[in-house]
Design goal:
Strand content of chain A: under 5%
Order of helices and strands of chain A: HHEEHHHHHHHHHH
Strand content of chain B: under 5%
Structural class of chain B: mainly alpha
Structural class of chain A: mainly alpha
Largest sheet of chain B: 2 strands, antiparallel
Distance between the termini of chain B: 32 Å
Oligomer: heterodimer
Helix content of chain A: over 70%
Shape of chain A: globular
Distance between the termini of chain A: 28 Å
Chain lengths: 272, 272
């Protein structure tokens, strides 16, 4: 049985489970959408008082927000519930069963549950993108941008996944990592803004560190820059950042894989 | 009377001990809470640079950042994590029965527990808060406010705590009628985030929204104390504003008690 087949089974089972509690599913759908609507409302208000934020005008910024929604909805749908589950599995000893299965453990613990309701925001993001892109001043359609955009969204999702699984793997060492979610939220909070806002004597080093050491700033900025200002025209690092983003994705995946394997090596079964 | 005070004192001490179990996690969590402020500082710097104006709705760039810093204090007083959901869980699982049998008033018990938790929270959080405010003292261009304004600020903060407590507990009491209130709580949280001034100073809202928010109790949970500190409330309106806030506290004290009595009447003790 191929890994794809296994994943499709996971996805199907999760969908069946979600559909069993349909009202709950719809509530989750609406709540995650209203959260994003509020975020959009906030920026609409801010743009009443300014023409642009760090070189992003209103509709360009809406593209940025749509990109954030795409990436977040994918991460939340595929990886978030599993990363939370991992620290619980470590605490209860349930990880033993995952280790025994004849399948790659990282694959199993990363993808066994799909949170379908998070994909609601994916559709909202599509609508927002379709609304905002034609309204960007002087926008010219570029085939390269249209092809690269989804690819870089996937790259962004993979970088965030690497950060998440690295954090989750630390729960194997620490026994339990309750503030995992908080920490994740605060770290990714930096990625949700255009990188140009990190300016000045404190901002520049921050921008540099979150681009080249923990590459979370490229997650949204690269795809959004490709779409809104075709191929990163205004970016401080220019189109080269797109090349770097590919390398960063590979490095992040390799690093998180290494950390995960290391952590598994020191797993002491709690009880089972 | 003495016995009664002794009972309450014991409850208070137990709650303090309970809170101190996780003090390390706690201090770290407090410091991390300020990370979103860092991005807010950069964001608003970029907004003001883009607007090219010295002030937006009467707030200078420093004022806005000072405002966000102050809302972290008001939120520390007014936010009641887990209060409504915890109460709803007790109702659902039947744990609430113990308060019907024991000669302890459930609202008083919860209030005391909250006070204990908050006091410990401030004791631990004072260090991180003092550090951050000292580092950011440059944003408070007007320096310390007048003693009377400062007194009004602390009065408003104390009432923000009481208002937050009774408002959220009243919502929790709805669980006597609907067993599952988590989606309702989410809606409340969303509204609270947007309308309390946690996300931005309420002056930014256009009419008619600003007028509507003016009549809601939510603004006293985050916006109002911060606005007092920054001198945004004219001195002759200060007393009236504090009276309205006190009125809202009283309203929810009564609402909470009424809901509890009505709830006890229709409660039919499921679970053991």
């Amino acid at each position: 049985m191929s890994y794809l087949g296994v994943f499709l089974t996971f996805a199907r089972n999760s969908l069946i489970r979600d559909m069993t509690f349909r009202a709950n599913f719809i509530i989750e759908l609406i709540s995650s959408m209203s959260w994003m609507a509020m975020n959009l409302g906030f920026y609409t208000l801010v743009y009443r008082y300014t023409q642009n934020i760090a070189g992003w005008d209103k509709y360009e910024f809406f593209v940025f927000i749509a990109t954030t929604m795409f990436v977040n909805s994918l991460v939340q749908a595929f990886f978030m519930p599993n990363a939370e589950e991992l620290s619980e599995m470590v605490r209860t000893g349930g990880l033993d069963f995952a280790l025994l299965k004849p399948i790659d453990t990282q694959f199993l613990v990363s993808l066994q549950r799909v949170n379908w309701s998070s994909l609601g925001n994916f559709l909202v993001a599509l609508m927002l993108l379709a609304y905002a892109v034609p309204r960007i001043e002087g926008y010219q359609f570029s085939l390269a941008a249209a092809v690269l955009y989804p690819l870089y969204i996937v790259a962004g999702v993979l970088i965030l996944y690497s950060v998440m699984i690295t954090l989750a793997a630390t729960s194997i060492w620490l026994g339990r990592n309750q503030s995992l979610y908080d920490f994740w939220f605060y770290i990714t909070n930096f990625s949700r803004y255009p990188m140009e806002i990190y300016d000045g004597p404190f901002g520049k080093p921050l921008q540099w560190a979150f681009t080249f050491i923990i590459p979370i700033l490229v997650v949204i900025n690269v795809p959004a820059g490709i779409m809104a200002k075709p191929i990163l025209a205004d970016n401080p690092y220019g189109p080269w950042l797109a090349v770097f983003a590919v390398l960063a994705t590979i490095a992040a995946l390799a690093f998180s894989r290494w950390v995960f394997q290391k952590a598994l090596g020191s797993y002491r079964s709690a009880s089972s | 009377m003495v016995a009664r005070v002794q009972t309450w004192w014991t409850i208070f001490r137990i709650c303090v001990e309970e809170r101190l179990v996780y003090r390390g996690d706690f201090a770290l969590g407090t410091l991390m809470r300020f990370l979103p402020i860092v991005t807010q500082i950069f964001l608003w710097t970029a907004v003001f640079a883009g607007a090219g104006k010295g002030a937006i709705v009467g707030y200078s760039q420093n004022d806005i950042i000072a405002y966000y810093l102050l809302t972290t204090i008001t939120r520390a007083f007014a936010s009641m994590p887990g209060l409504a959901s915890g109460f709803a869980r007790q109702v659902r699982e039947g744990e609430i029965k113990k308060f019907m049998i024991q000669p302890i008033d459930v609202i008083g018990f919860l209030l005391l527990a909250r006070v204990a938790h908050k006091i410990i929270y401030y004791a631990v959080a004072l260090g991180p808060f003092a550090l951050v405010f000292w580092l950011c003292r440059g944003y408070f261009t007007a320096g310390w406010p007048e003693p009377t304004v400062l007194a009004a600020f602390f009065a408003s903060l104390t009432m923000a705590f009481l208002l937050g407590f009774f408002l959220e507990l009243t919502i929790g009491m709805i669980s006597f009628w609907f067993l599952e209130v988590s989606s309702l709580l989410f809606v409340y949280m969303l509204f609270n985030f947007f309308c309390s001034g946690h996300m931005f100073p309420l002056e930014i809202l256009p009419q008619p929204w600003q007028g509507i928010v003016e009549f809601l109790p939510l603004k006293y949970l985050a916006y109002y104390p911060a606005a007092i500190f920054l001198g945004k409330v004219p001195p002759d309106e200060l007393v009236r504003g504090l009276m309205i806030q006190a009125g809202w506290v009283l309203f929810f004290v009564i609402a909470c008690r009424t809901a509890l009595n009505a709830g006890y009447h229709r409660y039919s003790g499921y679970g053991g």
